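job 3f2a | input accepted
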Amino acid sequence: MGDGMTGSPIAKVFLFGRNFGTLIALSFTVAVPAFFIVYALEQRLVLPALSVLFFGTAALAAVIALSTRARRNTENLNLWDIAGGLVITGCAASVMGEPEQVVQLFEHLFERRTYEQ
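job 3f2a | predicted structure (117 res):
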């Protein structure tokens, strides 16, 4: 089943270091827009916006995991685990909000502004 070092601490550190750059990039992909959402939007629109952010980032993590052919069933944390955690977090954010808030978010995002002519 491999080289015999998969369970050793040295191998685990090596495997963690290999994906560390991807983990940092995904962290910034979530953190920067999350801070912007919290400070820029009205309080009632924050949960639906965070839910959309988490679902989108989970999709991004799944695409990266699929393209890098990350193993699904491992002892270590992998991109599939991160994508699953982001989906669960997005579900929690969407459950805590109201459906009317989602409608208001999309109205806020896509409303047409009339400019004086």
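job 3f2a | Confidence is low (pLDDT under 50) at residues 1-5.
job 3f2a | closed
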